[in-house]
Amino acid sequence: MAKKSQTVFVCQECGYESAKWMGQCICGAWNTFVEERVQDPDRADIRRRGVAAPKDGSERKRSAAVRIADVRPETNSRMDTGIGELNRVLGGGLVKGSLTLISGEPGIGKSTMILQAAAHLSRRYGKVLYVSGEESREQIRMRADRVCPGDLDNLYLLAETNLENILPVVREVEPVFLVIDSIQTLYSEELDSAPGSVSQVRLCGSVLMNVGKTGNLPIFIVAHVTKSGDLAGPKIVEHLVDAVLQFNGERHQDLRILRAQKNRFGTTQEIGAFQMRQEGLAEIENLSGIFLEGLTDSSDGAVATAVYEGTRPLLLEIQALTAPTNIGFARRSAIGIENSRLNMIIAVLERKAGLSLINRDVYVNVVGGLRPEGTSTDLAVALAIWSNEKGIAVPADLLALGEIGLTGDLRPVQHTEKLIAEASRMGFGTILLPRRSLEKLPKPFGKVILKGVTTVSEAISLLGGK
Questions:
Q1: CB-CB contact of 12 with 234 (8 Å)
Q2: Would the pLDDT of 4 be above 60?
Q3: Class of domain 78-283
Q4: Which of 3.20.20.80, 3.30.565.10, 3.30.230.10, 3.10.290.10 is the CATH number of 289-462?
Q5: Which of 30, 306, 356, 456 could tie 419 with a disulfide, CB 3.0–4.6 Å?
Q6: Are strands 17-18 and 5-11 parallel, antiparallel or unpaired?
Q7: What gap in Å lies between CA 97 and CA 58, rounded to an integer?
């Protein structure tokens, strides 16, 4: 019987389908609809349920509900990837039957990291299948010889983009781990649309999810990113998978940061740090030392601060630069900090600390490319701006912590005790923090000098400001 299909218009941003082309989608995006041919609803409905009808015409097997008390939790269900930082971001290891989507810019090291993990899993657990739609088997072998020395007898390679050809190989090899590189290169003969289209990505993602869940097979899927750094393809794929990992870094630098944007088996606040080397990706143990290696006493506009990412504290350097405005409107630019947060801090400095910045451009940067979450860096940002504007250098052994409110007061931050312990380990002698946080700390607290302040203006006065 010939395949039944229909023409629809699909939004490339959210995957919304419409019978006619629309200028603006319901998600708010403009001019994102493309014409595609998809299957009729009946066949698509069968596919989404993941229960195919038997070829002999017999009745389809029905699912049965079970009591939650009868479901036995699996023990030792996590697999060690051999990469500690990757295990940390995943929540302790790779969960069997999980579907993980990893994205990043081209050349950032996604395939290298996955290949290193695949090599370790093949040595420890059994067969691993690496499906590549972008590189040949020879190219992958050359990378494996460089970054994965040792026994690779259980690592299987398949250069294929047709989903119907991949599934029989998966059943034949019976791997313990499956890699798809990348989802945008796969296509199914069930659809007439081109590889990478919204319908193809959605269908291939659904089939892979069914393979992983029914076979208790962990799957890693590599995905492309758009120019803005977001995941390419429909948002429904992000909802299908169990974890979404983002790999960030500058191609001209060797630092790489892995962050979980979604994780059903762990926290989304964990980050993993890597260094790109000739022999592959190496884990970074002392990440705080890398972020602070350029901090000196002689430069103004630089202040150290600390954030708590996942289960570990990190020390960072905040840099600020002010310059005269030449175009009539003051410019505010920030890297690593939200612009709205920067504008609020500048307004507090002008109103509560008497610092006039109306005719000054302000630039703020978090050294190292990390985008910290939370508000514990507010005080350091304010002091860095003040330091550069007044030409007064902040001592390199001073670290500032605190959230700034609209009234100019400083609010406590979480995990203050652990942040102070990390600062003490890194050699900082003085820590500036909200007075309410200081009152909750045990006394004495080592050799570190703790100075509690109530407002931003009080913090500036302690550093020699008026």
A1: yes
A2: no
A3: alpha beta
A4: 3.30.230.10
A5: 306
A6: antiparallel
A7: 29
